[in-house]
Design brief:
Largest sheet: 2 strands, antiparallel
Strand order of the largest sheet: 1-2
Distance between the termini: 20 Å
CATH superfamily: Farnesyl Diphosphate Synthase
Radius of gyration: 18 Å
CATH architecture: Orthogonal Bundle
Structural class: mainly alpha
Order of helices and strands: HHHHEEHHHHHHHHHH
Number of domains: 1
Mean pLDDT: 92
CATH topology: Farnesyl Diphosphate Synthase
CATH class: Mainly Alpha
Strand content: under 5%
Number of strands: 2
Helix content: over 70%
Shape: globular
């Protein structure tokens, strides 16, 4: 196992932050208002978990392809979804990544457009930087567009909104978080792995691994929304209860939710070992998600 996981994680987060600065349109690009709003939300105190996973998957096996533009593309799509989630018509949140949310700082119209621009820019980055490996580029566009589309991320979000005022349902809870959260974790892993020319069997293992990693993250997030402060979360706590959101503690209670974290962690570790390659960092990453509770 890696002895210095935290420093390696920090180094990868720094790489991603630098790539965001390098690859986004410059702040003075016309019109500057939209590019300021894009930079503002992208450069908040994000954990960069999804792009870190993409880098980790790409490093499992030998590859000469630069993963950073794809990592930034994943973060663009993720950040767009956060900007839109925070809008008054959704969660109406005023704090995200340790700073005022985009619609509070720039107004709803600019925030909406900044989210739209980041979503579009994600696919621009892939098409621009991977045009010399068109098969891999198309596969990554497939992964990212599927994860961000109406049957997954957006489908999960609309079900989340619809069920805020309905009786708790485990079936709907699983659907929401499989699609709203886990889908993008899966895409991050499969996109990174595709750069190694991995077999479809390996890609499918990575997809399943992302499902379990996403659920670990989501269940822990649901628990922390109840137990943590705004300072430690970097976003407004208690919104799940305030908005009557369908969460794991609400449906299953705290004890069973903690047991589910342990179950998904065990399954994810086994899948990571099955995936093979240089998986020490990825194994540590999985364990670190559960440790957010301690």
């Amino acid at each position: 196992m890696i002895m210095d996981f935290k420093s390696i994680l920090k180094n990868r987060q720094n790489q991603i932050n630098q790539a965001i600065s390098d690859l986004l349109p410059k702040l003075n690009t016309e019109p500057p208002e939209i590019h300021e709003a894009m930079h503002y939300s992208m450069q908040g105190m994000g954990k960069r978990l999804r792009p870190v996973l993409l880098l980790a998957a790409r490093d499992l096996f030998p590859s000469s392809i630069d993963p950073l533009p794809a990592a930034v593309a994943v973060e663009c799509l993720h950040t767009y979804s956060l900007i839109h989630d925070d809008l008054p018509c959704m969660d109406n949140s005023h704090l995200r990544r340790g700073q005022t949310t985009s619609h509070v700082k720039f107004g709803e119209s600019t925030a909406l457009l900044a989210g739209d621009a980041l979503l579009t820019y994600a696919f621009f980055l892939i098409s621009k930087h991977y045009k010399d490996v068109p098969k891999i580029a198309c596969e990554m566009i497939y992964d990212l567009s599927l994860a961000g589309g109406s049957t997954q991320l957006i489908g999960g979000q609309i079900e989340d909104l619809k069920h805020q005022n309905l009786p708790p349902s485990n079936e709907k809870l699983e659907f929401i978080h499989k699609n709203k959260t886990s889908a993008l974790f899966s895409a991050s892993l499969t996109m990174g792995l595709r750069m190694t020319n991995a077999t479809e069997e390996k890609v499918e293992i990575a997809r399943r691994l992302g499902f379990h990693i996403g659920l670990i993250f989501q269940i822990v997030d649901d628990i922390l929304d109840i137990t943590s402060s705004a300072d430690s979360l970097g976003k407004t706590p208690g919104l799940d209860i305030q908005n009557n959101t369908l969460t794991y503690p609400k449906v299953h209670g705290m004890k069973t939710s903690l047991e589910k974290v342990a179950e998904h962690t065990k399954t994810a570790i086994n899948l990571c070992k099955e995936l093979g390659g240089r998986n020490e960092f990825l194994l540590e990453f999985i364990a670190s998600l559960e440790h957010r509770l301690t």
